[in-house]
Amino acid sequence: MAPRRLVTVVDDDESVRRSLPNLLKQFGFAARVFSSATEFLASDAVAESSCLILDVRMPGMSGPDLQQELKRRRRAVPIIFITASPDDRVRQPLLKQGAVECLFKPFTETALCEALDAALETRRH
Amino acid sequence: MSSDSNVNAGVPLNTAIPVALASFDSIVRTEELRTRPRRPVEYEKETTALAALVKALADSPDTILQTLADKILEILRSDSAGISLLTKDEKRFYWAAVAGVWKPHLGGGTPRDFGPCGDVLDHNAPMLFRHFELRYPYFWAAIPPAVECLLVPFYLNGKAVGTVWAIAHDDRRQFDGEDLRVLESMGRFASAAYQAVESIEELRSEVTAREEAELELRELTGTLEAQVRARTEQLRLSEAFLAQAQHLSRTGSFSWRVATNEITWSKQLYRIYELDPSVPVTLELIRSRTHPDDLPSFYDAIDRTRTGAHHYEYERRLKMPDNSLKYIHVVAHGVLDKDGRLEYIGAVQDVTERRLSEQALDMARSELTRMARVTSIGAMTASIAHQVNQPLLGIVTNASTCLRMLAADPPNIEGAQETAQFLLSDGHRASAVIKHLRSLFSKSSTTMELLDLSEATQEVVTLSLNELQRNNVIVRTACDRDLPPVLGDRVQLQQVILNLLLNASEAMKGIEDRPRQVLIRTYLDEDENVRLTVQDAGVGLEPSEMEKLFETFYTTKSDGMGIGLSISRSIVERHSGRIWAAPNSRGPGATFSFAIPRAAEDAITAPGPGVLEPCTASATGFAENL
User: Fold this and answer.
1) Domain B356-442, classified CATH 1.10.150, yes or no
2) B449-610: which CATH topology?
3) DSSP per residue, B491-526
4) Looking at the predicted complex, does its ipTM rise above 0.90?
5) CB-based contact A19 B392, cutoff 8 Å
6) Mind listing the pLDDT tens digit for each residue in B290-308?
7) Any idea what the Cα angle at residue A49 is, between residues A43 and A54, rounded to 5°?
8) Contact A84/B at CB under 8 A
């Protein structure tokens, strides 16, 4: 059996960290969670993640900050942003910066599936 | 003309009144004015004189009475002319302005009850005297003697307070009916001029009120211009100077003989109405230029003018053929002529520029208010969304996971149960967020003080008046001035009042068939609570809505957030009060009310304002989550 691909969730919100990995596992992925960007950067998940689900607004290093940092480190991991503030003025720049998707919380599992498909499609190129 | 240094002393003011030498009747020649042949009318001269007076009034108001005396002398070709005014104690007349031969007597005077001026005031009518020194011996010292003296009373605020007079010192000049007409005309002018000077004197002392003085001067000048204007038109004479003055001040004038509907307009008024001066003016023509919304008031004014001579002042809009708007300020004065026919004489000023700049200012101001309101609501919406969306994602995700676990083969019951637990806790969390927000709105940084709700209401009304007027909302207030104080947070309660007021305005947005009227009342109700009611004439309320109105996120508006009333309720409840709504018992619309207890007696007598501990914990928690 091929190793399951790792989807990593970085979000400061506890209920997201508690619920999202379970659903990802139901989808057939391996899942890891981090409550902050720095915690994630310090881990081996940076190299192993096939996809990153990243909260936009976090204390300390924000989601977009982490996106820039990964670019700087030439880690081309596809990113799906998630945010609780539904604002297109935030979403558009993120997509321009290369994010696969930016989902507004609460999003449906269908929306998440489509975003993951798109992300992993990107990965294969 | 005498250069005798005793000449002033010859008109004693304080010496005992001497005995009359001749009878009153023997010196009066007023009746002869009717029978004497009238000299030809010199309209042009008269008009020029009136115009010069208007100019004098505007340029150097101090000299207005002297200018008037000079002009009377000139037009009547009399030997002396002047204006006598009653002193403050009303015991004598002093000569406020004298022109011609008797000019050295300037400042002199005559007793109130023994002299020609007094006679004129007693009879309240013009009079012609011949050799009045025969009856009033103190005039002997006034050289040369007054062979004929024509006097007319002049009035201040309806009261005769002096005379305007002209004197012939020999028999070459005899006054006639035309002289009387001119002098009376000048007399009326003197009244207006004197009032103007008085006002200017008063206003001059108030340096800070300079603008007001200018305005008053302009208005008075305008009134005088209108008088001059009416005169000239009546006389159908050259009016170059006046036309220019009217043009400069954008003021036109009119006269309207009510019975015959004969309307005369000045050129400037034609210009304001953008009509050809050759077109005869009719009420219909004026109506056609009147803004449709102002027609009711137009008809109303016409109806009222017919009931008698009134004074009117109003502002009205004109709609021009190119659909542009003009604002005019109209002052009209009704007079009855000798035959009792009603005539209106008035001035019309084009105040469009002034109104437009005022409106621009209003617009900017209310836009600012709206922006402030929208941004604060916008900011609130975003933070609430953020707060609520986090647990919602947990709920949705856990529900998906749960369903998938149950649908698996074999179903993962244990995992589903665990996930359902998470789901439940996220649900609790979402409701906790709402509770948290509620407490935030009602508790954060509350500063309680003793306050007068009527006063707080007036402030809100004043602040929001422009915004309300822009929506054509008429605000009426009936605030109890003796309302007992309440203990409350001024800003929060004012937010509630503002919210109710803006809601009322909003509810009347589409109303066209009745006045958009809001009535705000404050009073002590039967339960000894201080109550405020906001009654509108809007779309009203469904009985089913009553309960939900004050719930968070409930809204009847397409663009509403449903937050305003729920926050209002939180605030009122925080003040131990209650808030409710009811349809109006009579007529359309609804009434929103809140009542809060009057402050306890000991709170009123306490030295300082009571300050409740602010609930800062929730505010901090809220800010952290932003």
Assistant:
1) no
2) Heat Shock Protein 90 (3.30.565)
3) HHHHHHHHHHHHHHHHHTTT--SS--EEEEEEEE-T
4) no
5) no
6) 998 888 888 888 888 878 7
7) 85
8) yes
